[in-house]
Specification:
alpha/beta, Rossmann fold, seven-stranded mixed sheet, 7 strands, 36% helix, binds S-adenosylmethionine
Length: 265
């Protein structure tokens, strides 16, 4: 039985901090569409993926023609950056359209691949083990982080590599929520909170902080990005020009600070 009070305090802080990102009901009721959906075009990779410390860290543990399990794979940006040496991709995502894009990317790389539809860790039992497990830009969606991390760990032969923004990825939109709804938004949790939970689970985890080199090249054009921001703000599309003007200032204020968290198994 786990008796470490620090571990439980960290997990409670993580869960409560994420819960504070819930959109107030009176705003949700006015949302024309679901503000939480991930648009597939945003995660469809159209350009070579810029190398990052996350990719270098994963590549260092990957044997020639090895397998990579990409959890919350989206369009496969994480696996793509490891190919070669990766020779087999396993993608897990709870959106079928993401898995279709992942499969197309694998096909274009000439690697063998398999896709598993569902929520991690619920689908862990029917997911094969891989040499390296990567999970990029997912954990701020996960309230029960310990379980999620434990299932990643049991699916890696060599190493697990997470990539995540240093602070919650929607923090950049906080000035927009203030402008359009007069709503103050949270800023927590952070990558260091995730690190504490992972270490509390007994893993010798390391963190590397870095600045994203370039914006994430995707199939999404500027207009579509503004529409997605409008949707995230629970606003109708006839506000898209106002949102685009405000978003271009908020989004370009500073380059994103990211973190790689990794541990060997
Ligand atoms: C922000 S996107 C990141 C996509 C990709 N990893 C990347 O870095 O470009 C998050 C992805 O994780 C998926 N996702 C989020 N939580 C998940 C979960 N618990 N189980 C499976 N997929 C999940 C979403 O559907 C989405 O495709």
């Amino acid at each position: 039985m786990d008796t470490d009070p620090g571990r439980f305090a960290d997990e409670t802080h993580w869960r409560d901090s994420l819960a504070a990102w819930a959109i107030p009901e009176q705003i949700m009721n006015q949302a024309p569409t679901n503000p939480w959906i991930h648009p597939v075009a945003q995660f469809t990779v159209v350009a070579p993926v810029a190398d990052s410390p996350s990719h270098a860290t994963a590549r260092a543990a990957l044997p020639e023609a090895g397998s990579v399990l990409d959890v919350g794979c989206g369009g496969g940006r994480g696996a793509l950056a490891l190919t070669p040496p990766a020779g087999h991709w396993i993608g897990v995502d709870h959106q079928q359209d993401m898995l279709d894009t992942f499969a197309a990317a694998a096909q274009s790389q000439g690697v063998t691949h398999e896709e598993i539809l569902g929520d991690w860790p619920d689908v862990a039992d029917r997911t094969p083990i891989a040499d390296v497990v990567v999970c990029h830009h997912v954990v701020y969606n996960v309230a029960e982080l310990s379980e999620f991390i434990a299932a990643l760990t049991t699916h890696a032969r060599h190493r697990v590599v997470l990539e995540l923004p240093l602070h919650h990825p929607l923090t950049w939109m906080n000035p927009l929520w203030k402008q359009f709804w007069d709503l103050d938004r949270p800023t927590e949790p952070s990558a260091h909170d995730a690190l504490s939970i992972i270490r509390g689970g007994g893993h010798d985890a390391h963190i590397i902080e870095f600045t994203e080199e370039s914006s994430r090249s995707s199939a999404m054009d500027t207009r579509a990005a503004a529409e997605a921001t409008c949707q995230r703000l629970c606003l109708p599309l006839d506000r898209v020009d106002d949102v685009a003007a405000a978003a271009s200032i908020a989004d370009q204020a500073s380059p994103r600070r990211l973190a790689t968290i990794w541990w060997d198994v």
